[in-house]
UniProtKB/TrEMBL annotation:
SUPFAM superfamilies associated with the record: Acetyl-CoA synthetase-like
One GO term of the biological process aspect: bioluminescence
Organism: Budvicia aquatica
Organism superkingdom: Bacteria
Name of this chain's protein: Acyl-protein synthetase LuxE domain-containing protein
TM spans (from-to): none
GO MF terms, alphabetically ordered: long-chain fatty acid--protein ligase activity
InterPro entries linked to this entry: ANL_N_sf, LuxE
Pfam families according to UniProt: LuxE
Every Acyl-protein synthetase LuxE domain range: 54-339
Amino acid sequence: MTQPTAIDLLANLPAPYGLNTDADKALFDSAMQQADLWHQAHNPTYAQLCTAQSHPVIPVGLFKTLDLATPTGDQGQWLNSSGTGDKGKTQVFFDATSMARIQQGMVQIFIENGLVSPVPARFLLLSPDPSTGDHAGYATAFLKFTACAPVQECVFAVQANGQLDTKLAWDTLQRWANEPVPVYIFGLTVFFEHLCLSQPESFRLKVPVRGLTGGGWKGMTQRLDRQQIISGLKQCLQAPLVDIRDIYGMTEHPLHYISCQEGHFHIPAYSQFTIIDADGQSAKADRPGLIQLENPFFASLPSHRLLTQDLGSWGEHCPCGQSRRFLRYIGRATTPEGTCAAEAI
């Protein structure tokens, strides 16, 4: 029987949102070291980077201009990032080993945020059906998130050309209104705004509505801010619960993170994050800087130390009661042109 690796043990932590113990920190460090050794042994380009710096932090834009993939010899699936500005799109190979780790981690993230249910549910996806064309990775991600509950029905409300069919979305919600089946809505932030701006007369949805919105609120919405969108949907749907959370992630990073009810991202023990200030140093609490993410789950991409193009800050003592320090997402450090949300406008 093969002994589990440090990365496997990290992916199977029983309480990734618990107190940040010394044992968890040591396991994370061991898993990151294992990721370094793997990519050095199987990726000559990454090995060359390590000759200049022992633990290189790679800017996300570099993955859009260079082929930095690590061959795994495994079966899997290719996904595209959105691309940003005049940069290209990153093609990321999700091999079977990486996917198993990612799925294990995402299950725990969904459980922590109250999104997992054994009860069959209906899903309204404000995204295209991935089978209809070469869509950005967000389309596949939202479809995979439907694993949080048995799927009774799934409706894709974005056409193959990337445009949201607001009539189909609202007709679907009204059709579901009187039936006792929980409803989930997943989609890009900009599509949630379009949904809110096109809302019909208020009607009563008899079941709770839970939602995830990705793509960032800052700089993407054209007319409404986050609170206006959520308030508008609550007023229109008249449901016993409308709980819409933000999701933060990118194709080049294995995991997506879900905000608490205060809008903060509590990063589980699978990962670590740092806010990098203008001097290239770790920023103090509440001070803005670039978000740097660390996670060792990818066998197919040496992005385990990733400098993003996103601005954020960090804090502690969240009113939600979660003990782990949290990440605040502020917005893009670059222009939003070329992102999933910008392409949807």
